[in-house]
């Protein structure tokens, strides 16, 4: 097994790489609410239409992610984890950088949203290969009995990327000035491009960390024993269809929760209270609330990993799913227009982020443990990213429609239904805490 020094390099490469990938993803998410509806889509008398159009391109990346998991999973299961992780990072970083250079609708017309959609697709393609590779790098080099803890490190990239992305947006909007709908201020004129352009610097750092890695011993052993599939995609459907379906459904509630308490709630928080589509909280103040809550997401990931190693994956996920069921009943209490305020919104965000940390923490151990080495990159990647379509891509869109037609508590009922589906899948899955990664 790897030495302590090698494991530290793996931890660094995992955390840095996934932080960059999620930073790129969240930068787009923030801009999808505050920037793109005004600069990349034709003016419409109903602002909800532009917001929904922006959310549609936001969701496009989730459609690309399963394709990315197939593409990068093929090479990850054929030639190795290291080279594939480098390629996925480059794909994501270049697409994000180009978004910072795109012309807006005012200068390029319909070509602007078309190019934006293309680059968003590229982002999804890269992230589709990133997460499963980082998770495998960690799980396949973990010490006995500490696999969830080892797999926890790439999970930290999600809250860290969110902190960097939203923190930078907060700084820029505070210094350059921003108000919803303003298209002539410094931030909307050029400042929004900075977070996208800066991603290229972070990519260089990530590449440096990943080029120093070695291949995992589990994959090396599988190659030595001739356990390599010619077409991993066909093999995963032939040999691992049940874990593929279960893994996809297990992840659905996690994704739905996260994109409700980040992307959708941002649009609701800063939306107009007069129209019933928001709470009229100033954009910068809402970002500050999100920045406070995200630290709970960060803090509860290692808590969940520790509990998963001690009590097993299924027990933790069942318990957290029940917490999520209770949270689904709180939407009207904490976000309902007549009695909602910044304090109740902060409580909503903090509780949601704490639950998110608990459900997200064990996932990078759970999904890889469900698949054999020869199709592990492909299988875990497809499950993770197919659930992103079912649980995340459509979540802001559905939530916005539910809010407009049935009120804010309807969004909570939507979360409830998805959570019950995931809970059923968790009950059906096998406990994998003590499984040998080379023998699965």
Structure description:
- With 440 residues, the chain is mainly α.
- The chain has one domain: Growth Hormone, Chain: A (Up-down Bundle), CATH 1.20.1250.20.
- It is 77% helix and 0% strand.
- The protein has 21 helices and no strands.
- The protein has helices at 4-34, 36-39, 47-78, 81-99, 105-108, 111-139, 147-155, 157-176, 186-189, 194-211, 217-224, 232-239, 241-270, 283-311, 313-328, 331-335, 342-360, 363-366, 376-393, 395-406, 408-428.
- α13 packs across α20.
Search tags:
mainly alpha, single chain, Growth Hormone, Chain: A, 21 helices, 440 residues
Task: Summarize the topology.
Blueprint: H1 4-34, H2 36-39, H3 47-78, H4 81-99, H5 105-108, H6 111-139, H7 147-155, H8 157-176, H9 186-189, H10 194-211, H11 217-224, H12 232-239, H13 241-270, H14 283-311, H15 313-328, H16 331-335, H17 342-360, H18 363-366, H19 376-393, H20 395-406, H21 408-428
Helix pairs in contact: 1-3, 1-4, 1-6, 1-7, 1-8, 1-10, 3-4, 3-6, 3-19, 4-6, 4-10, 6-7, 6-19, 7-14, 8-14, 13-14, 13-17, 13-19, 13-20, 13-21, 14-15, 14-17, 15-17, 15-21, 20-21
